[in-house]
Amino acid sequence: MPRQPRTSANKGKANQVKTSQEVEEKIPYISGYKRPSENDSKKAIGFLSEIPVEFDPTPSKDNCVFFPHLPDPTHVDDWLAQYCEDGQTYKQFLKECPWLSSRKRKYMSQEFKSSGQTIKDKYPDGKVYIVPIGAFDEKDSMFFSSLIEYTSIFLGLPVQALSKVNLNVEDGNVYWVESPKSKVSTGRRSSRRVKQHQLTSRYNPDTGHLQVCVDSNLMQLRNLIPEDAICMIGLTLLDLYGEESDLFVAGMAAGNERVAIFSLYRYDPCLSFSTEHWFQIEEDEKIAEKERSRITLQRGCKLLVHEICHLLGIDHCIYYDCCMNGSGHLSEDFRQPMHLCPVDLHKLHTLVGFDVLDRYKALLQYYKKHGFKEEEQWVQKRIKFICHK
Ligand SMILES: [Zn+2]
Ligand SMILES: [Zn+2]
Question: Residue 201 sits in which domain range?
Fold first, then answer.
């Protein structure tokens, strides 16, 4: 079976968020998919003898199951009902991850130390960059810095914001406004006029809904990647699509390169979307503003770390309930947890070299600050488990 692409270019299938009244039925896995046994999952964590407590998947003495197995599909569009995912064990990751190779990655011009153990030793200047694309108002910029803070705690890597790419939206058309600073000056006679390039987009005048196409025009984003970048993620609040037949796409990564763009538009809990027409979107005002921001932030955090982990070489997870599980549609995505299972935590730990307990403590502070109650409780119990086992 071919492996799934590292970055899910399209999470956007028919995907109304299910209400709790809906009855969940059993749906078969895609043919050929082999559900890992408990033992397979334990082995995938990658320890030959005893598993250290930080990566121990067993329940606590008071029966807290930190890492349940993946639930069976309950919807035909669920990831494992659609894609035959073969999983990536810790051992496979060590073999495949380009960031752990003793050879410098293609296109990287920054300093490289082949003898280094972790990505930080190998690329001492390496950073993850996040660039806002299009409108982000004052409230959104707080949201944006909260996303950056989470990403840096979660990954244990330096994460920095780049200055915004301006988009000009006029009469249903979208223009990329080229910043004079983003180009190297060509000398005295260089023009000071601001250049604009039209992006491919579609607009429905009846609903006023606009979507921008993630084609080569938008992916000129890759021209902005700084020399010391490990990867760069563009984030936009505009809705995206790839092909005419799409309802929408959540985002796109530029092949094997280090650049990706994602939209947060469909993560707004106040919006509900037609499963037939890309331009039909309804706004439901029932959610209080504070709760709306919290949910959007939580979804955005999960999306960002999931996609950056892909760019770091971590594939989809089939071993436990985990933020690296694939998702076939939005409600499946929203159901998944924010934490990494022991298999993927071990991968990230080897790649970056953080202290697992310190990372959990920093995440706890973050969850408290932003009111992520469920995750706060989870991580608190996990810390207790690690300290007292
Ligand atoms: Zn993915
Ligand atoms: Zn996992």
Answer: 123-183+191-297
Q: Is residue 292 part of a domain?
A: yes
Domain holding 138: CATH number?
3.40.390
> Which among 352, 308, 312, 343 is positioned nearest to 96, based on CA atoms?
312
**Nearest ligand to the C-alpha of residue 345?**
2
Rounded to the nearest angstrom, the distance between the alpha carbon of 64 and the centre of ligand 2 is: 18
Confidence check: pLDDT of 104 > 70: yes
CB hemisphere CA count around 125 (13 angstroms): 9
pLDDT in tens, 188-239: 555 567 788 899 999 999 999 999 999 877 777 888 999 999 999 999 999 9
Question: How far does the centroid of ligand 1 lie from the alpha carbon of residue 328, in Å?
Answer: 10
Mean pLDDT over 39-46 rounds to 96
How many angstroms does the Cα of residue 269 sit away from the middle of ligand 2?
Answer: 26
With residue 149 as reference, give the H or E element that holds it: helix 138-155
The answer as to whether 172 is a domain residue is yes
Q: Which of 307, 332, 375, 376 is catalytic?
A: 307
Q: How many domains does the chain have?
A: 1
What pLDDT shows up at residue 283? 86
Within a domain: 41: no
Query: Is 307 labeled as catalytic in the residue annotation?
Result: yes
For residue 108, being part of any structural domain is answered with no
What is the number of the ligand closest to the CA of 260? 1
Higher pLDDT, 10 or 88: 88
**Cα 313 to ligand 1 centroid, rounded to whole Å:** 11
